[in-house]
Each structure stands twice: as structure tokens, then as C-alpha cells.
Amino acid sequence: MKELDLTYIILLVLAVPGGMALGYFVRKTMAAREIDSAEAKAKKILSDAKSQERELLLKAKDRSIALIEESKKEETQRRSELKDFQRRLEKRENLFDQKLMDLENRQQKVYDKARQVEDIKKKIQQIHGEQVKKLEEIASLSKDEAKQELLTATEKEMKEELVERIRKLERENQEVIDTKAKNLMTTAIQRCATSHAAETTTTTVSLPSDDMKGRIIGREGRNIKAIEQLTGVEIVVDDTPLAIVISGFSPIRRHLAKRALDKLIADGRIHPSKIEEAIEVSKKELAMDIRKAGEDAMYEVGITGLDPKLVRVLGRLKYRTSYGQNVLRHSVEVANLSALLAEELGANVSVAKKAGLLHDIGKAVDHEVQGTHPEIGRDIAKKFGLPEEIIKPIFEHHEDNPTSLEAIIVKVADAISGSRPGARKDTYEQYLQRLEELEKVASTFDGVKNTYAIQAGREIRVFIEPDKIDDLGAIKLAKEIAKRIEEELKYPGEIKVNVIRETRVVDFAR
Asked: Could you tell me the residue range of the domain that residue 221 belongs to?
């Protein structure tokens, strides 16, 4: 038994290394097979990749060859087109050169013909001059003398007919025009009620007692000098009971001085420092009053949307007068009249109203800015961005030929407002001077016997000598006098020129 166990052990010991050797051999064999198989696959893959690479290279070569061929064809085609285009350009250039040469030839021919025509014209003028000289020698009259003789003869023959026709046309046209104008004007004027002229250069300040005059004057006149220096007015202290007079051409300065004096009188303390304080307060109140005046004027005529600075400039017109007429009230009146006339004539009511209110805006600063008030008003309107349709009436309301219907309306409304009874107030000297100038202008014409300015200078009657001026000459004289008055005189509204020619025959029965 022991021998069997030993035999099994020996066999077992021998079998283990043998199994391990056999396993190793088998594993090595299998690994060699797997390696051979992977190499074969790799070779195959490499072979397939090389064959695909050759195919792709062949295809790329074929594509590049095709592209090269195609680009060569396109280049050939473009060269052919460029050659055709160059040939056409050369052909057109040759044609243009030919036409240019033809044109130069024609131009030269035209110049030659023009010179020939000019030569012929000179010959004709020379012949005409020779004929005129011969005719003048035959008739013993020059060309101008013969023309004047013919016109004079024609005028003598047709004088009565011309006078009658002129009078008939004037009567017919004047009747129609007067009727329409009167209807329009009366309709507009009747619907507008305004104020009359006020004081111009003085303002009266009431005093509680005459003792206040001495306090206003102050010791050695220091108080009154301070007031005059700070306000720019002249204070007149005379024998008028319970009153002193502020004199000055600027209504703003007079009103400022009056406000300051009223405050000083109410306070009772009058000395230079108090005077300065009162004037500063009055300036602020006056600025607020000016702004309120502009806003009230806009509200009265129904206008909105103006710049606040422009409203303040408009309010300054409250303290500006023209021939005694308050300019702000005049502007409100012109705005209302312009709106009424625009309604009657079918114009733009809004534009006419706004232009009428602002037509004298230049007068608010005309003492500070150089230029006429229409020019200043135009510049102000442009500065505040007003449209051209409003700027035109402002600039053209004193022009002879306004360029828009609204400008004509504003001009007419301005004339109505300035010429109505009570609107303006002239001094006695200015009134007499205006009448004398009116009569003097009419008296400068030949054949005038007497001249009389009547109706406060709104009509001038001219009596002529009937043996020196006939009926046709009277018509011409009236037009010439009216034209001279328009050119030389300044006046509100219009002046009627009435030329009177009459023949009186006196005899006695004895």
C-alpha cells in the first residue's frame, strides 16, 4: 500500500510540471495564431486603405484636370468678350470723333452765318438810318419830333373820347370796388371795438399832501436826483397841488418811477437807500406785469403755443406808444381785424391773427437794436422759430407789394387801426406841419391855382386853372399828385386827391 501511495505521489509530481509545460505550449500556440490573424487583418486593412487612396488620388486628378479645362474655357470666353467690348469701344470712339468733327464744322458754319447776319443787320440799320435822315430832311422834323407830333394829333382827336372812356371805366370799377371794400371793411370794423389814444410823454403821481413834495426832493435835492438817476426820467415838481409829474419818452421808465414813488409815499421813509430798494422791488413787479400783459393779449385774441420769452417781449408793447396809440392794444386790434378780414376773404385765419398780433413786435426793442421795426420783428420771429407764413406779414406790413394774402390783410388791418378816429393823437405842431407839407406837395405842379387840405389831412382839394389844364390833363395831374404824396410823405390810412377844374362865365345885363 505504501508503494502504491508513493507511486501516486511520484506520478502526481511528474504530472504537474508536464501539465504546466503542456498548457504553456498550448497557450503559446494559440497566441501565435491570434498574432498571425491580427497581422493578416492589419495588412488587409492597410491594403484596402492604399487602394482607396489610389482611387481618391485618381478622382482628385480627374477633377482638377476638369476644373483646369473649365477655367481655360472661361478665360478664353472672357478674352473673347473683352476683345469684342474693346472693338465696340474703339468703334464708338471713332464714331464720336466723327460726330465731334461734324459738330465743329456745323458750329463754324453757324458762326459764319451769324457774322453774315450781323453784317446784313448793320447794313439794314445803316439803310434805315439813311432813310430816316432823308425823311427828316423832307419833313423838316426829327424822329422824336414826328413821333410827338403824331401822338399829340392823335390825343387831340381822341381827347374827348378818352376822357369819357376813362371816366366811365373809373366810375364802373370804382363803384364795384367801393361796394365790396365797404362791405368788407364795415363788417370787420363794426365787429371790433377798441380804445382811444392815451397820454404820451407824462405820468402824474398823486400826493397825500403838498409837504410830500419837499420830502421827495430831499436835502439839497439828493432824493429826486437819486430817483431820476436810477429810473432815467425827469420829475417835475411845480405849483400843481397834490401832484407831481414824471416826464420821459419811455413808458416803461415812467411806469417804473411811478411804482417806486407810490411805494415810497405809502411807506413814508424817503432816502437814497430806501429809494434803491423801492426801485428794485418795482422792477420785479414790472417784469411780472409785462409777462401778464403778454399772456392777457394772447388770451384775448385766442392764440396759444408761443415761446414764453416771446410772450414777455410782446408784453413790453404795453409800455410803448406810437402817435399816442398804445402799441399792445393796437396789436390786439390788428389781430382781431386780420382774423375778421381773413374770414371774409377766405384766407388762413390762424396765420393772419398770429401775424397781426406780432406785426409790431420789433417796436418792443427798437430803441435797443439797430434797424426798422419790421426788420427787427422779422429777426425776432426767426429767432423763435416761427414759420415763414407768419414772418412774411411781420416784415412786409409796410411794403408796397406784400407777397401773400395774409400779409396784405395784416397791412390793411394795420392801416385801419392806425387811421380810425381816435386811434392816434398828433400834437398841434405835428398836425399843422402835416397839412402844410400836403398842400406844399400839391402846389408844386404847374397849373395849380389853390390847394386846401381838409378832413384832418385825409383829403386834399386842388383847384387848377382851366385854360392851362384840360380834362385829360386833370386826370393825369391827380395821379401824379397822389404818386408824389406816396413817395414823399408819411401818413396813416389814405389821402383822397380831389382835382377840381371849372370854368365860370360872368356877364351883366344892363
From this structure: 202-419
